[in-house]
Amino acid sequence: MRRPSRRAKPRWLHRLYLCLLLRDLKAKMRKDVKTGLLIGTVLCIAAAVWFSIHHRVVEQPRIEELLSQKDLFVIEQPKAQINLNDDENSPIPSDTEPSVRMHIVKAGETLSDISKIYYGTTANWRKIYTANQEQLSRGPNAIKAGMKLVIPQ
Fold first, then answer.
1. How far is CA 63 from CA 57, 60, 67, in A?
2. d(CA 25, CA 87)
3. Taking a C-beta distance cutoff of 8 angstroms, is the pair 134, 148 a contact?
4. Cβ neighbours of residue 106 closer than 8 Å, sequence gap 6 or more
5. In this structure, what is the dihedral angle of CA atoms 146, 147, 148, 153, given to the nearest 10 degrees?
């Protein structure tokens, strides 16, 4: 009897073998793709959490330790002397500045501009706004040329 050679295998059997092999490879690849997607998603979430925490640490510096009571001291300011015998109409000495400063708003000026003039920084515009809330009742943008604003010390 003749012994079948390797080439004598039917083609359909070879095709079936290849189909089964490909099916197993596809299933394995699907599993690898799912695993890769899962790992990638976890890494992205971890990176987002790390960056959000790192951003907060940079933005909010740590508070330094408070000074102990021994390190604190009080500077006493001299109290003003009131003389009841003086005339009510006596002139105020000219070497002292008035306690209230006034500013007349020019066209195009903002509270930040005025703050820059008197305080050297634009950050103190809220001080001027709170001191003049009656005039600026509609908000800080309600400033108009010719308004007289109180500038706090």
1. 12, 9, 12
2. 107
3. no
4. 145
5. -120
Give the pLDDT of the chain (153 residues) as one tens digit per residue: 566 555 567 888 888 888 888 888 778 778 888 888 899 999 999 998 888 887 655 444 444 444 444 555 556 666 666 655 555 555 555 555 556 788 999 988 989 899 999 899 988 899 999 999 988 888 888 888 888 999 988
Strand partners, 149: 103
Beta bridge partners of 57: none
Report whether 127 contacts 149 (CB < 8 A): no
CB contact at 8 A, 118 and 104: no
Residue showing tokens 């997607």: 37
Distance between CA atoms of residues 47 and 52, nearest Å? 9
Q: What does the alpha-carbon distance between residue 100 and residue 153 come to, in Å, rounded to a whole number?
A: 8
Q: Which residues contact 152 (CB under 8 A, 6 or more apart)?
A: 127, 128, 131
Residue with tokens 């000026």: 109
Q: Quick one: tokens of 54? A: 């790192």
The residue count for the chain: 153
